[in-house]
Write a sequence for this structure.
C-alpha cells in the first residue's frame, strides 16, 4: 500500500476484507405480517453503514436480529464466519441454543433509543458489570477501562452518579461507553438521538463521530440525521417496505437518489 | 352477661398469653411456606409451554377462589381419608399447609408484579451486554424487582397474622383458642376476647407503621422519579 493513505484507499482496503456480518435472504414476520422480505447484506470490518427509511420499514428489526433480540423467521445471519441463529450438530444446521448465541453475540454491541441504563447502578457500575462478569476481567482492570471510556465520552466527573441524575444526552453517552468497554467488532445504534431534546443531540453525535474516526469497529446506524449519515457513513441503505430499495455511498444515495420513494423520503426531510 | 371485671381480666391474661407463641409461630411458619411456595408458582408460571402455563394458572385460580377455612377443613378432615395419597396431619401442620398454600398464590402475584415492573429494555440491554441468564436475574432484574415488592410482602405478613385464628377451628391452640376455652369454662367471654383483640392490635399496629416506613424508604432509595419516568415511557 502506498504511504499516502487517503480515506478512499482505506475504504477499498476494507472492501476486500471478509465481511464481519452477512445477512443471507433474511425474512422476518410478526404474526401474519412480513416486515422484512429477504434482506441480503454484507458489512465489512470497520465499515460504517447508515440505515435510513420511513417509519415501519423494518430498520430497527434488522439490527435487533443481529443483536439476537429478535429471531429471523427464515434466512441466515453470519457473524465473523459463524452462524448466529444456527449451529452445527451432527453435520446439520440446527437452531442455536443460548450457549451458542452467547458465543457469537459477543462480537456485537448495541446502543438503544431509550438508553436502557441500569437505574440501580452507578454510571461506573453500569460500565463495569459486563467486563467483570461476562469477560471475567479482574475488577481493577475493568474499573480502569470503564473510567477511561467514561472520560472519553466526557463523563469522567460523573462516574459515581446514578442514571437518574443525568441528562438524556449524558445518559446516552454512558450507554455508549458501556457498550464500548465490551470491545465489540460491530456496534449497532438505533436512532440514538431521537429521544433527546434537540439541544442535546449534538453532544451525542459528536461522540459517535469520534468513535467512527477511530476506525476499527464496524458501525450500523439507524438514523434520521441525514447530514450526519452523509458525513460519517461509508454506505447508506434505504430500507422501504421490508427490502433494501437502494444502497451506495452517501454521495449517491442521499445527494443523487434514483429510487422515487427515496426521493420523496429525502424531500420530506429537506423541507 | 355481667359488666367488665378486672379480676377476670387479670386471671385470664396469663393463661391466654401462653398461646401467643403458637399464634406468632404459626404466622411465621405459614408466611415462610407462602413465600417459598409463591416462588414456586412464579417460576412454574414462567415456563414457556402453554399447557403447563394454563394448568398452573387454573390451580392458582382454584386455590384463590376457595375460602381458606374450607381448605383448612379439607386438609385436616378430608385429606386423611383420600385413598393412596391421604395422610393424617396434626393441626399445626395442616394450618401451615392450608393457609400457606392459600396465601402463596397471592404472594406469587406480588413476585410477578415485581418482575413485570422491570422495563423490557432492561432485559434487552442485558442481552446486548451478553450477560448469562443467571447474571441477568441476579445483577439486573431482581435488584430492581425486589425493592418495590417489600412493602406488599410486609402487608401480607400482617394479613397472615390476622388469618391465623382460623386455625383455632381445627384445634391449633393459639390465643383465640385459649380465650374461647376460658370463656367456655367460666362463662366469661368479654374479658378474654378483649385480651385477644388487644394482643392482635398491639402486634399488628406497630408492624403496619413499620411497613409504612419501609415503603417510604424503598420509594426514596429506589427513586420514585425513576419509576414514574419509566411508567411514562421515558427513558433511563
Ligand atoms: N414485536 C413486534 N410485534 C409486532 N409487530 C412488530 C414488532 N416489532 C415491530 N413490529 C412491526 O414491524 C414493522 C417494522 O418495525 P421496525 O421497528 O423495524 O420499523 P422501523 O423502521 O424501525 O420504524 P421507526 O422508524 O418507526 O422506528 C412495523 O410495522 C412494526 O409495527
Ligand atoms: Mg425503529
Amino acid at each position: 500500500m502506498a504511504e499516502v493513505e487517503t480515506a478512499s484507499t482505506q475504504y477499498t482496503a476494507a472492501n476486500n476484507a471478509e465481511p464481519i456480518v452477512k445477512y443471507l435472504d433474511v425474512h422476518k414476520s410478526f404474526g401474519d405480517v412480513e416486515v422484512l422480505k429477504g434482506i441480503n447484506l454484507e458489512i465489512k470490518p470497520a465499515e460504517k453503514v447508515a440505515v435510513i427509511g420511513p417509519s415501519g420499514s423494518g430498520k430497527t428489526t434488522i439490527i435487533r436480529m443481529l443483536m439476537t433480540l429478535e429471531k429471523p423467521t427464515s434466512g441466515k445471519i453470519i457473524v465473523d464466519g459463524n452462524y448466529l441463529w444456527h449451529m452445527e450438530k451432527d453435520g446439520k444446521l440446527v437452531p442455536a441454543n443460548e450457549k451458542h448465541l452467547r458465543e457469537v453475540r459477543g462480537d456485537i454491541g448495541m446502543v438503544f433509543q431509550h438508553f436502557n441504563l441500569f437505574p440501580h447502578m452507578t454510571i461506573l457500575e453500569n460500565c463495569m458489570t459486563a467486563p467483570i462478569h461476562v469477560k471475567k476481567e479482574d475488577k481493577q482492570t475493568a474499573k480502569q477501562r470503564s473510567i477511561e471510556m467514561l472520560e472519553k465520552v466526557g463523563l469522567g466527573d460523573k462516574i459515581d452518579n446514578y442514571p437518574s441524575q443525568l441528562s438524556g444526552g449524558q445518559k446516552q453517552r454512558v450507554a455508549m461507553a458501556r457498550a464500548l468497554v465490551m470491545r465489540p467488532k460491530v456496534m449497532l445504534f438505533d436512532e440514538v438521538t431521537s429521544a433527546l431534546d434537540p439541544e442535546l443531540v449534538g453532544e451525542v453525535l459528536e461522540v459517535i463521530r469520534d468513535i467512527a474516526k477511530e476506525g476499527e469497529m464496524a458501525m450500523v446506524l439507524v438514523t434520521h440525521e441525514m447530514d450526519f449519515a452523509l458525513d460519517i457513513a461509508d454506505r447508506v441503505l434505504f430500507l422501504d417496505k421490508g427490502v433494501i430499495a437502494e444502497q451506495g455511498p452517501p454521495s449517491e444515495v442521499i445527494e443523487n437518489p434514483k429510487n422515487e420513494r427515496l426521493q420523496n423520503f429525502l424531500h420530506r426531510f429537506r423541507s | 352477661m355481667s359488666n367488665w371485671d378486672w379480676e377476670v381480666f387479670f386471671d385470664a391474661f396469663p393463661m391466654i398469653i401462653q398461646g401467643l407463641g403458637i399464634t406468632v409461630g404459626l404466622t411465621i411458619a405459614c408466611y415462610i411456606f407462602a413465600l417459598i411456595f409463591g416462588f414456586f408458582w412464579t417460576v412454574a408460571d414462567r415456563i414457556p409451554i402453554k399447557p403447563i402455563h394454563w394448568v398452573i394458572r387454573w390451580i392458582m385460580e382454584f386455590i384463590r377462589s376457595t375460602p381458606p377455612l374450607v381448605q383448612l377443613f379439607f386438609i385436616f378432615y378430608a385429606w386423611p381419608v383420600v385413598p393412596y395419597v391421604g395422610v393424617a396431619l396434626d393441626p399445626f401442620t395442616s394450618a401451615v399447609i392450608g393457609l400457606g398454600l392459600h396465601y402463596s398464590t397471592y404472594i406469587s402475584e406480588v413476585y410477578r408484579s415485581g418482575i413485570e415492573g422491570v422495563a423490557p429494555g432492561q432485559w434487552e440491554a442485558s442481552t446486548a451486554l451478553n450477560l448469562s441468564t443467571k447474571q441477568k436475574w441476579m445483577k439486573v432484574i431482581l435488584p430492581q424487582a425486589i425493592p418495590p415488592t417489600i412493602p406488599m410482602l410486609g402487608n401480607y405478613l400482617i394479613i397472615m397474622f390476622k388469618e391465623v385464628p382460623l386455625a383455632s377451628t381445627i384445634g391449633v391452640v393459639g390465643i383465640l383458642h385459649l380465650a374461647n376455652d376460658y370463656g367456655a369454662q367460666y362463662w366469661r367471654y368479654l374479658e378474654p376476647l378483649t385480651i385477644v383483640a388487644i394482643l392482635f392490635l398491639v402486634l399488628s399496629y406497630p408492624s403496619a407503621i413499620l411497613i409504612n416506613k419501609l415503603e417510604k424508604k424503598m420509594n426514596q432509595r429506589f427513586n420514585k422519579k425513576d419509576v414514574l419516568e419509566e411508567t411514562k415511557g421515558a427513558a433511563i
About this structure: Residues 198-214 of chain A form the longest helix (17 residues). The longest strand of chain A covers residues 33-43.
